[in-house]
What we know:
Layout: H1 2-32, E1 39-41, H2 60-73, H3 76-79, H4 90-111, E2 142-150, E3 153-164, E4 175-178, H5 180-184, H6 186-193, E5 209-210, E6 213-214, H7 215-245, H8 249-277, H9 283-321, H10 330-361, H11 365-374, H12 376-386, H13 388-403, E7 411-414, E8 417-424, E9 428-433, E10 438-442, H14 443-448, E11 452-453, E12 461-469, H15 475-488, E13 499-505, E14 510-518, H16 521-542
Amino acid sequence: MNAEATPAKRYLLLLCACMVAMLAITAPLAAQDNPELWYETEAINPGLDAPPSEMDRSSPRVALRSFLELAETGDFETAMHFLNLSKLPEEEQKSRGHDLAAKLASTIDRKLLIDWADIPPEADARSPDSTTDQQHSEPRRDFLLEELEVAGDTYAIRLGRYAEKTPEGEAHVPVWLISTDTVANIDMLHDAFGPTALESHIPRSLKGEFGGLQLWEWIALPLLISVVILVGFLTSWLVGLGRYMSSDRIQHRVFERAALPLSLVTASVTAKWLLGFAVSFSGQATMIIGLALVMLAVVGFCLAALRSIDALLDHLTRRHLGNAYDTPSSSEREFYTSMYALRRVVLVATVGFSIVFVLMQFNLFADIGVTLLASAGVLTVILGIAGQATLGNMVASLQIAIAKPVRIGDSIHYEGDWCIVEAIFFTFIRLRTWDERRIIVPVKYFLSYPFRNWSVINERMICTIQMVLDPMADVDVLRKKFVALGKADPEVIEHDQLFAYLTGHSSNGLTIEFYAMAPNPWKAWTIEMRLREELVNFVRREHPEWWWRERINL
């Protein structure tokens, strides 16, 4: 019984295995035979001869690569089989297909920089999802290669998957072709982005590729750059003539500051005109030149904006303060510091706007945004470590601009030096000492340690003169003399603040201190030296016996 049952079990197992194998094979076929995965058409290019048997149009990547390779060799008779010419009459498909294939290849070469990794290699156009490499997107029957803008309208270069209608029960053979909508726009795209009249005279021997560019492009690029540089220098020279011809101070400054920005803008506009009128480069060269021109124009406009605003702020500052920057009042110092802060805000806003504009022009936000979000933690750590000093100084500079613990023009005593705050920049402060030396201090370091600000509330300052005289000296006589000297001094203010006090005494002598009010710290030192010298002359001439003497007790 067992011996008879064993063969039956084997046959049953074999039958099950065959059924499983058949299901495994037929499932993909059923999926491939899904009519939603292609566009069904009566016939594919019936006006053309039968395509070569070795032609592969099974996936977007293979079809596009094959089309471009055939176009590069000049075989447009075969390349036109990669276009869906269904909207053309059958009698025109063969005559126009050659020309349309050549025009499309030229447009792609000049305007598209193809990243083959982004083009699906699968027949159903599945591509890796942006979230993980293991997940895949849904099957597609069309693939967008690029969108080009002409006269404000957007036109797509798209590949579609097409299959001819077949009798009931027969399998479809779908192929990937350039879509009918794209074929209908080829002439218009070629007129907008195709070769110029000048390029038609370029010998074919110079159209071979080397290093990703055609040979004639390696010759034309240096010439284009030379013309752009020449136009820039010519613009700068012409603007410079206006500077020398103007007698008004404001006009002179405007011409001086506008020379560089205008030269950059005219150079970029000239290059853009040459690219649109005289010569048109391939996709690789167009990308490089386009990025350079956009950046050049942005830099020019930014410099123009910054210099114009800076000239306006400088004019307002000079009008408000005049040319006396050494001894401004408290309100003037605060105004000048606010102008510096406003300049920094304008600089940051302009640079930020320029970066955003450049990224938007080249559609870099999507990739950069995804990358930044995906690695936000790592970037934060890197920026925090690498840019700690710079960022800390910039934040400290912003703190000074808002709180104003120190202002431009303030007199301070910093680490043993008597200084004037000459300028406050993003990352450092420039101090000018009384002997015309310059001390450069990082802003963060400056605010981390205490310093004396003699101008924080009022710039008045009391001068203190100390003299040690003999115990026989008459303090009242010295007081009257000091008051008379102080009232006679043209720079001493608030004469009711002239005082003289005996602040110490011993068997060897008396310590007398004299006080006078100076209008600001700059004049306090000279007033102190001048009054001390006059007091010493008075004692030496009138009362030499008051000089301090050393006494020895026997």
